[in-house]
Amino acid sequence: MLTPRYYFADDFRAFHDYFLAQPHRKTVFHKGGFLWKPGQPHDRIHYFLSGAAVHFTQHETGRRRIISFHGPGTVFPGYHTTDFRIELSLTTAALSEIRVLEFTIPQFQAMFESNAALAEQVVKWYAMYVNRFLFETVHQEFNSSRVKLCNLLYLLAMNQPANSGLVIEMTQEDLGDILGISRVHITRELTELRRMGVLATTRGRLTITDFPALAGLCTNETV
What we know:
Blueprint: E1 7-8, H1 16-21, E2 25-29, E3 44-50, E4 53-58, E5 64-70, E6 75-76, E7 90-94, E8 98-104, H2 105-114, H3 116-138, H4 145-158, E9 167-168, H5 172-179, H6 183-195, E10 199-202, E11 205-208, H7 211-216
Parallel strand pairs: 1-5
Antiparallel strand pairs: 2-8, 3-6, 3-8, 4-5, 4-7, 9-11, 10-11
Helix pairs in contact: 2-3, 5-6
């Protein structure tokens, strides 16, 4: 069974050659650049060739809440034909240089309507994306800060932008922005996990040193 994901990659890898053969434009986004203008609806859909992006919302207080990460072999934003107001408050920025195949919505719609396999994968992708939010709503809401953090670290170790396994290249601020937990709480829980021998930390990087112990601190729905 699939586990919840915060990082989406390779979901559309099987359509790589098909996408190349369709009308598109090759585009490069530089680190820190936006995939579309903040506060505006997106009018392009991207198939990622390389690099990674972070999808987040910025509260009026200035605090950021990270929603998901997206990397090579995936399509983002997803294809749909409904205008959701909430999407105007969402932003996607490049974590590194990103190379993409860029499609207009009519171009992607033509592929969606003519390629049954692609249409099925779009639905499956949305199911995986919804699963990420259901996991957070149903389980994370009722857990302690430590369990929430351990769940996240486990899932990131399994699938993350850096693709480096037990080395997680994120700051404490990033972890707090994903979980909606203050940096004070994150620091306190990381200190305790270090004391327990579960992980080691350096600036901008965490290394899981006892993966079975980490898994033992997670909820059953995570592992």
